[in-house]
Write a structure and sequence with these properties.
The chain has 395 residues and is α/β, with parallel strands linked by helices. Helix content is 37%, strand content 19%. It contains 14 helices and 18 strands. The strands form five sheets. Strands 4-16-15-14-13-12-6-5 form an eight-stranded parallel beta sheet. Helix 7 runs parallel beside helix 8. It binds one RNA strand of 72 nucleotides through helix 5, strand 16, helix 11 and helix 14.
RNA sequence: UGCCGAGUAGUUGAGUGGUACAACACCGCACUGUUAAUGCGGAUAUCGCAGGUUCGAAUCCUGCCUCGGCAG
């Protein structure tokens, strides 16, 4: 299922081929996020044209809307969304965080370093109610207010209508089987970044039990990846990697966050990858800012999904060879140059900054589409260049 | 020409005696397995003009100006 074509001698980076019933993925590869069976603003044809090799959709969201039975009757996700290349589905484990502690505290998955130079953990607070400077803690045993985590799974409340719904490993596997993606993920808990070590230990035990249950309930016609957790603690990451590596998964997923310094993520990845088989594909969940990509590939990551190129595009940010450009800023109205002269995508070939800026400021949805297309093309091209370096032995 | 109504931030409006508020626009920041074309923050007003009453006026009174409606 996974074949390594070239292993770098300078790093853990490798070129591989991940085979699926819907074709091959040449790794390393970004897997753009198509939560609701769509890369927001793009058609599946456009996502393919932007050089996306595979997409990842979401179990929780598709279960809520339109429901997996609708997709099953449509012939599965591939036919439903008219995408004939490889597909993954995430298990709903991330929603345990994002709709639980994430929503409650108004925080993101990632912690970040205090800008005042202390080593104190500071969180990206986005919820006005929690705009205090106090350090948030999640002690062992604490439940998020908005959902309930038990040994068997998670009782969610629908963010759409408040209805209760239960998803555990069994339910996640059943839903993912109906969706019928090529690669699916074990049901896990993505723990909050500010959780105490004791909380993370309990959460990890639960995630490991759910990993075994996911294996038990999964149909072998889909590839199933287990998920390593453990937060910012090296001992927990090592323990988790050993546990997941010992189970008969088709690949290794790596989830959660890794601490509030960028270099810490590298250390955690090295710890994890040292414990898993070189022959298995490794997928890093939810990481992929441009500056992270060379680091994670050198650490030995084969595939990774991230909302950054698509999400930022819809907030007006273009990633270019000149860096991040906020294309909604009025200065671009007077700029007749292409978005990025060095980019070969149709947006950069055929349109100019002034027009992109106008579309964004006028809130025309085509502006979001053009930036989404460009960002994906740019990220994918960036990764192609890294692959060339691996192939030629310079990375 | 008369009568009636209206003039408050760039715009549309709220505010009927204690020197101003919202939305949008503008400017800035954030966003890493998507509840997000989102969230947070900031700047911006001699309250049409001139007088008067009052301790105090966007608010009450007088005159004027501008716009709209109706009448002639």
């Amino acid at each position: 299922m996974f074949k390594i074509l070239k292993q770098s001698t300078r790093s853990r980076a490798r070129i591989g081929i991940l085979k699926t019933p819907h074709g091959e993925i040449e790794t390393p590869c970004l897997v753009p996020v198509a939560t609701s069976a769509v890369v927001k603003t793009l058609t599946s044809e456009e996502a393919a044209a932007a050089k996306c090799q595979a997409l990842i959709a979401n179990t929780y969201h598709l279960h809520l809307q339109p429901g997996e039975q609708v997709i099953k009757r449509a012939g599965g996700l591939h036919q439903f969304m008219h995408w004939d290349r490889p597909l993954m589905t995430d298990s709903g484990g991330f929603q345990v965080f994002s709709l639980g502690f994430g929503k409650e505290f108004g925080i993101n998955k990632m912690a970040r370093a205090d800008t005042r130079g202390t080593s104190r953990l500071v969180l990206s607070l986005t919820n006005a109610e929690n705009k205090s400077d106090t350090l948030l803690r999640v002690p062992a045993g604490q439940q998020p207010k908005l959902l309930t985590i038990t040994d068997d799974g998670v009782e969610f409340r629908s963010h759409r209508d408040g209805a209760k719904l239960f998803i555990g490993p069994k339910e996640s596997m059943r839903i993912q089987a109906a969706l019928d993606a090529d690669i699916i993920f074990a049901f896990d808990e993505c723990p909050p970044p500010h959780a105490d070590k004791e909380y993370l230990e309990e959460s990890l035990r639960r995630t490991h039990r759910w990993a075994q249950a996911s294996l038990q309930y999964h149909s072998p016609r889909q590839a199933l990846f287990g998920i390593v957790q453990g937060g910012r603690f090296q001992t927990l990451r090592r323990e988790s990697a050993r546990c997941i590596a010992a189970l008969p998964f088709d690949g290794i997923g790596i989830g959660g966050e890794f601490g509030h310094q960028k270099t810490h993520m590298n250390k955690m990845l090295n710890t994890i990858i040292a414990e898993v088989s070189a022959q298995q594909p490794r997928h890093l969940l939810g990481v992929g800012h441009l500056e992270d990509i060379p680091l994670i590939i050198k650490a030995g990551i084969d595939t990774f999904d991230c909302t950054v190129p698509t999400h930022y595009a819809r907030h007006g940010i273009a990633f270019t060879s000149h860096g991040r450009l906020d294309m909604a800023k009025s200065r671009w109205l007077r700029d007749n140059k292409p978005l990025d002269r060095k980019c070969a995508c149709f947006v950069c070939c055929d349109y100019r900054r002034t027009y992109l800026c106008h579309l964004l400021r006028a809130k025309e949805i085509t502006g979001l589409k053009l930036l989404t297309y460009h960002n994906l093309f740019f990220f994918n091209t960036f990764i192609e260049q890294i692959k060339i370096k691996i192939k030629t032995g310079t990375l």
